[in-house]
Write the structure tokens for this entry.
Amino acid sequence: MPVDQRRINGPEVSVPYHIYSDFDKKSDKEKHDFSKRSDKRTDNEMRKIFLKTGIVSQAKGSAYIEIGNTKVVCSVFDPRELSNKNGYCMQGEIYCEFKFAPFSCQKRKIHQQNAEEKQYSLILQRALEPAVCLHEFPNFQVDVYVMVLDNAGSSLAAAIMAASTALANAGVPMFGLVTASTIGIYGNHYLMDPTDTEEGICNTQPDNEDDFNHGIITLASLPQHNQISEVFLIGSIDTNTINQATEILTAANKDICPVLQQCLVKTIMKLHNEKK
Amino acid sequence: MAETVLSSGEKIFILHGIDAILSFLQFCNYKADFRNDGRRRCEYRSMEIETKLMPQTHGSARLHIGNTDILVGIKVELDIPHADKPNEGKLEFFVDWYVILLMVIIVVIECLVFFINFQIIIFSATATPAFEGKGGDDLATEISNVLTAAYQTRNAFDLKTLCILPHKKCWKIYVDVLILQCGGNLFDAVGIAVKAALNSTEIPKITAATLDGGEPDIELSDDSYDCIQLDTNISKERNFVLYLKYEIYIGDNYIVDPTLEEEVCSTSSIVMSILPNGKISSVVKLGYGSIQFNTFTKMLQMGEIIGLKLNKTLMDVLKEETQFGRQRRIFGFLK
């Protein structure tokens, strides 16, 4: 990958010091104490959501979302014409760029997108595409930029919701809103809206158990149409558990939808009052 | 995906074959689902697979399914483990395109047989516009990401077996996938080929690994045939590799192993990877459409059944192949 010469990229190889801290030396049992979650939530409880539009004045539409400590900002820009490489395109396109801020995670991220961020960009794009009336702006492209300012878990779900709100805020024609949520699975535990440490735990399998369900599912859906717009599962989970988890997630997505709607109504009301 | 232009009539033909005709025939109590190549919805095309065909690699496989042609080469090299995972090795996937229009090959063959390889490289980018630049890049990223996701869990591949000296030395496995021809269903083909290639991978045997004044010192076996087969390395009988399955969803019905034409007609698809123990290690939805919850559940169940069946067949075939031993004739590209 080409390195941007104009930026100072820091030392080539550096590691966060956390990996040498005492936490990793604790036995697995202590780390995986699921009788209570670190932020006193129950397994089925989501963190509180704060959502605001119009945060970036330069952009056509923008949104800022906070889920617990996860903070994501998203901006949507005016449609621009596609460069005519493949001839006239009957459908419009959405271009998504997902980026973790360099300081957002425990390990510092470089300015270029890494493989994970590229994958998240594609997932974001596919989560939004079913919701946007692509035929309304043929041969045009809408750019969606998402920046995670602070990653405290479930940042992909937060990004999807921020992007869908920002698209609506930008006035892009849509069939409905997209909501998303994440669930972490560890054995018999279904951890709704996991934090970053919980995500780490759900991603690793305990050493001496082979037949063990673990993993993370992110599900984006269109609650107004009862459709799934994107699923992203990683781990090792049996089919029944997946089915149960997706049911929980679709229900959660339905519950979140009014938050997005109210936020948009508030924006419109504000605009209306200003005009008066 | 690759550029295949279909008229709306052709699209309707394909879609109705899968969808509408079925309901009519069911009414007559006649069970049949037709696809444009005569297959049923959950039927695969026949596959041809050959492993250990590249002498320079540590493991390789070539898979032919329909018009899709995949070549996988595996290289094993020494590396230093990640600081946060000191007793794990590394596994990386790279996907590359060499897509060529059939016409180009024919012309080249007629001119000069010796130049085939040379010409392929020149024509690769210009042949199919969709693969040019970003479009092809996106799909290649997608495939390698899906592979990385699928092999992430310890159930699928135990990276600890690749560790030689914790903190100091480990094996790094490079899985290089070369797509020679695309005839639809790339994800499945790549998944199966990677599985077969990993299954045939032999890692050189290390006779001694010591720390000499803090510096790692490794001694390899003198006999180059003295290798460790990757899967026997794993303590349990369970095979580490899994396989990816691709279902594409057209209209209200879903099909497996789509051809290029069927892929053009579909709005969304689900890619899932199934472990030999029946668990699912990754699910991703592709395409611009959305899916109903019920269909998604049905697809998962069907995927599990087909995945396990295909996995068993593949393992049987690979076992049969290894029984031929080193005297086996390698076909390669001369067929």
Q: What stands out?
A: The interface with chain B takes residues 15-16, 19, 85-86, 115, 118-119, 122-123, 126, 129-131, 134, 203-205, 210-211, 213-215, 217, 221-222, 225-239, 242-243, 246, 250 of chain A (CB under 8 Å). Helices of chain A lie at 28-31, 115-128, 155-169, 196-203, 239-275. Chain A has one domain: 42-81+92-275. The longest strand of chain A covers residues 140-150.
